[in-house]
Amino acid sequence: MLLQIGSINTFYGPSQAIHGVSFGVGNREVVALLGRNGAGKSTTLRSIMGLNPVASGRIAFDGQDISRHSPQAISRLGITLVPETRDPFVLLTVKENIMLGYRPGSPYTLDRLMDLFPLLAELLKKKGGELSGGQQQMMVMARGLAMGPRVLLLDEPSQGLAPIMVKAVANVLKQLKGEDLTLLLVEQNLNMALEIADRVVVLENGSVADTFTSEEGRANPGRLEQYLAVH
Ligand code: ATP
């Protein structure tokens, strides 16, 4: 496993959000992390990134324990988080927003990114704040890729987007599959997750409730829906 999460526990002050979560993500695998609101998906990503450090447990990247590393050190090792909040620099141009992430040696040059995100090619001179939600999502994904990560953590890329933009984001993710990249994707859109991921990990109340291949998930939708249905 390229990324191995081992029995991690994460707290917000006295309140425990993650309870002994363990799962792995193989090199070039796409794993979707699913679960209801508050299940602990974002916190898991933030723990991997060192933004909500684990209280105990181990997170290993390529065999190296990173669970006490700073977010900057984790980023330098090759893990990038594209957060749910998107956070564009509203006064910088789209090109500046993207190239802010660029690291020499990254295979995702501006040209390559424009092939992946043709919608952005015509917007490069616009300000980040002038874009629609979907365009901003494309921009922050492009920025994350420009860093040349080995592992891309994506927190709800389809959240709040118009259906046509959800499709566009899904298309980009499908193109990224098969490249030399490992994806851990938090998604509320079940169909999109099953379409893109190789494997699904379901969180419930901060613990892993189930894990199965996307093929198994598609063949047995009831298995997933029981975790996602609102009680
Ligand atoms: P969502 O889809 O709503 O983002 P999630 O599965 O990503 O849900 P988390 O955001 O990781 O869930 O939240 C896990 C738990 O931690 C929830 O009980 C939530 O209320 C709590 N939590 C999240 N952020 C904070 C915070 N900053 N301070 C205190 N508790 C928090």
TrEMBL record:
Domain ABC transporter: 3-230
Database matches in Gene3D superfamilies: P-loop containing nucleotide triphosphate hydrolases (3.40.50.300)
Keywords: Amino-acid transport, ATP-binding, Cell membrane, Membrane, Nucleotide-binding, Transport
Protein name according to UniProt: High-affinity branched-chain amino acid transport ATP-binding protein LivF
GO MF: ATP binding; ATP hydrolysis activity; branched-chain amino acid transmembrane transporter activity
SUPFAM superfamilies according to UniProt: P-loop containing nucleoside triphosphate hydrolases (SSF52540)
InterPro entries, per the entry: AAA+_ATPase, ABC_transporter-like_ATP-bd, ABC_transporter-like_CS, BCAA_Transport_ATP-bd_LivF, P-loop_NTPase
One GO-annotated biological process of the protein: L-amino acid transport
Short name of any one Pfam family annotated for the protein: ABC_tran
Keyword hit for Cell membrane: yes
PANTHER family: ABC TRANSPORTER ATP-BINDING PROTEIN, HIGH-AFFINITY BRANCHED-CHAIN AMINO ACID TRANSPORT ATP-BINDING PROTEIN LIVF
Gene: livF_16
Species: Achromobacter agilis
Family per record: Belongs to the ABC transporter superfamily.
